[in-house]
Design brief:
The structure is a homodimer. Chain A is mostly helical. The first copy, chain A, has two domains: about 80 residues, no CATH class; about 350 residues, Up-down Bundle (Na+/H+ antiporter like fold), CATH 1.20.1530.20. Chain A is built from 19 helices and two strands. The first copy, chain A, has a two-stranded antiparallel sheet with strand order 1-2. In chain A, helix 9 runs antiparallel to helix 10, helix 11 runs antiparallel to helix 12 and helix 17 runs antiparallel to helix 19. Chain A is globular. The first copy, chain A, starts with 5 loop residues before the first helix and ends with a helix.
């Protein structure tokens, strides 16, 4: 089925060796000519070269095994990031480098913009009710299940810890799901739109939940009580942004592009589109939402009709212009995400039971989402699976938990933290193959009973 | 000739207002929702949006005035970077932001790779002798003229200062010239190849001169003498790299791409090409050369025949894949370079005379380069003008000079430093229009006397 010839295997080994050699070189300090100026970009370009090559090798292996390329990139990242277990302590430098981190963040922004471009606001509004219900169920059910699991397995922890563990289960990593839909060429299906819309709303709801839980715990610590006004303001701001961005963006975008179409110099369409995406990402970040929410909204708002003037004079389609940029930056994001996955979390005693229970709660809880879809003829299993990956959002939640303290003591202990990380890793890694299976099953069902 | 209608002016004003507003927003700290996680990428995307929009407006105005777009980008940068003179102290944040700085450095690497792709090693070897002679003359003559000017105008400074000022005149900013050739669509002419080859060799020679001068000064300071072995090693390493990179690269590239052509996943050609460019850039940086030397060598080495397998199965040409990436990153480089231009250097008393003398020495000295061209039928004036801009290389030199001390005293005083900066600014800003004039003159001569 796969059919690697020994010659191909030799080639793959050759390329792997080159990657390993480059890694060794990173750890060797560069001895510059005496008195010469060493450009700091040297280190960054070496890291980028290693990430790009490793991502392509991982993506290729995954593709040959019939899996989405993103799974290969994640696993290549996990492998490289955990090389220190095997004695290569130096590779961690990549995952913690601030420039690589920033390029990864730019990467996920470009990815969500690209994915947003594949749908329009109108198409999204059509599935708006389902997406909203899916998001609400996807926040409530996993949180309750996670809270129950924590109460059952770590009864000695404080009630705040139970609440917090529950809250960490509500996240959805829209990056993973978006990329899988893209890899499998189904980003324009109704299922994909519902899941992506729900994941974006989920990001907003998750923020609200996190702010409220953090507020309750901070209030408990200081002996004061949480102001309802604060909770309300958080919700209003977050909800207001999504609708505001879509409404204002839809009015501004046509004017912006009509204005820009008078500029005749090279690359105007790309520059203005990226500036639009970046401005909305910044706006989302400025009110405390994830910037990717803004990037997705920017992609939804931009429609072909807005930049018709450019394509009519022979310029490339916007999607085609974005693709090379995402080919450079997006693998950086998934590689870094893989590299930050700490496999040693699985090896701590007392972690496995809680990790298993949280993972089951995380997966089953999101399956309830499928039931919330109001449209007919939708593959509910695909919707449920699409909501499963916690990805980087889950890790951000878990890290914030370590910082929340009551009476000077962190409410989440190390074993619980490791269990949450394990849950995030498993839900993230199983989604690409599970989503592919579910989509194929749907296709088979459609062809056998037309 | 230019023909701005009042409606167009109103539009331009509208866009400028939007840019100004965005600048104001940068200076306002973002108030995130309480307890929420503010993504550090927010600031970076806002800055990128501002840089992209301002670069396009500047580039457009320059294009409409018949100038290369890069002049507009530089001047837009100068304008924004010197807004603090007008009371906007906050804008400087962009020019000093480490992430923007890194993106700018990536930008010039991508630019030189792109420019390198437009020529092949064979084409470059054909003009190799001329390029080498042009580079040598371009280092020697301006340095001697600069040394004479410094001796004449600041006779009280130490002889080391005179030597150092002379050395700062030997640099050539290959970025500026490459971009002007690209803007004017003449990057494949023999003149462009000679200038680009010479500028790259000049980068190597400049490094040697700088290392030697710095070594002499450091030896004078410590009372020891400079080892000839050190000088020889610096020269050997630098020269070895250029030939080594071209020779090894030309052997490795075909194998690398044959190997990569077996990978079927999306974006392999771009990823492998960029990784190749990044690895050579890193190698150049690791031995103390500017990374752009490696990027240019990578571009020269890669030829269409290496990735024929990809284009034959319908993938885009490499040049087309790189273009969107350079459209995102390259303007960042020129905007930042403009923003770092300190106009207040011109306003210091006692600076103007020296600045004028150095500028004349810098321009006339490089005109001697044209005489070194051995080919017939070459526009020698274009070659001479192409070598004029000092750009970022000149600024790096000047900054290193501030750090060189004899007896605890910096050998370059502030007035001399400002004069060097002024010389760098003027040579950089006059090159785009001067090169365009010279190229047009050449074209006219060619059409009137065929």
């Amino acid at each position: 089925m796969i059919g690697f010839s020994s010659r191909r295997l030799a080639r793959a080994a050759w390329l792997s060796c080159a990657v390993a050699l480059a890694f060794e070189l990173i750890s060797t300090p560069a001895h510059a000519a005496d008195g010469a100026h060493v450009d700091p970009v040297s280190r960054v370009v070496l890291m980028l070269a290693v990430l790009l090559l490793a991502a392509k090798v991982g993506g290729e292996l995954a593709t040959r095994l019939g899996q989405p390329a993103v799974l290969g990139e994640l696993l290549a990242g996990v492998l490289l990031g955990n090389l220190d277990l095997m004695g290569f302590a130096s590779v961690e430098a990549i995952a913690t480098d601030p420039m690589i981190d920033m390029l990864a963040r730019l990467g996920v922004i470009v990815l969500l913009f690209e994915v947003g471009l594949e749908s329009t606001v109108n198409q999204m509004m059509k599935v708006g009710l389902s997406a909203f219900l899916v998001a609400v169920i996807g926040v409530v059910v996993p949180s309750v299940l996670g809270w129950l699991a924590a109460r059952w397995l770590v009864p000695d922890a404080s009630p705040y810890a139970h609440v917090f563990v529950g809250a960490t289960l509500c996240a959805t990593s829209v990056g993973i799901t978006a990329r899988v839909f893209q890899d499998l060429n189904v980003a324009k299906t109704t299922e994909a739109r519902i899941v992506l819309g729900a994941a974006v709303i989920d990001d907003v709801l998750g923020l609200v939940v996190l702010a409220v839980v953090a507020g309750i715990i901070a209030a408990a610590d200081s002996g004061t009580s949480l102001s309802y006004l604060d909770i309300f303001l958080t919700i209003a701001k977050a909800a207001g942004f999504l609708f505001g961005a879509l409404a204002i963006g839809a009015r501004v975008a046509p004017q912006l592009f009509r204005l820009a179409s008078h500029l005749k110099s090279r690359g105007v369409l790309l520059a203005v589109s990226l500036a639009f995406c970046f401005l909305l990402s910044w706006a989302a970040g400025a009110i405390g939402l994830a910037p990717i929410v803004g990037a997705f909204a920017a992609g939804l708002v931009l429609e072909h009709v807005h930049y018709r003037d450019f394509t009519e004079r022979g310029e490339h389609e916007l999607e085609e212009l974005i693709r090379p940029i995402s080919a450079l930056l997006v693998p950086v994001f998934f590689m870094v995400m893989g590299m930050r996955t700490d496999l040693s979390a699985f090896m701590q005693p007392g972690v496995l039971g809680l990790a298993a229970a949280l993972t089951v709660a995380a997966i089953l809880g999101k399956q309830a989402c499928g039931l919330a879809v109001v449209e007919r003829g939708i593959d509910r299993l695909t919707v449920g699976i699409g909501m499963v990956p916690r990805g980087e959002v889950g890790l951000i939640f878990a890290n914030l938990g370590l910082g929340l303290k009551v009476g000077g003591k962190s409410i989440v202990d190390n074993a619980t933290y490791s269990a949450i990380v394990a849950m995030v890793v498993i839900t993230t890694l199983i989604t690409p193959p599970a989503l592919r299976l579910s989509l194929n099953r749907g296709k088979r069902a459609a062809t056998t009973s037309p």
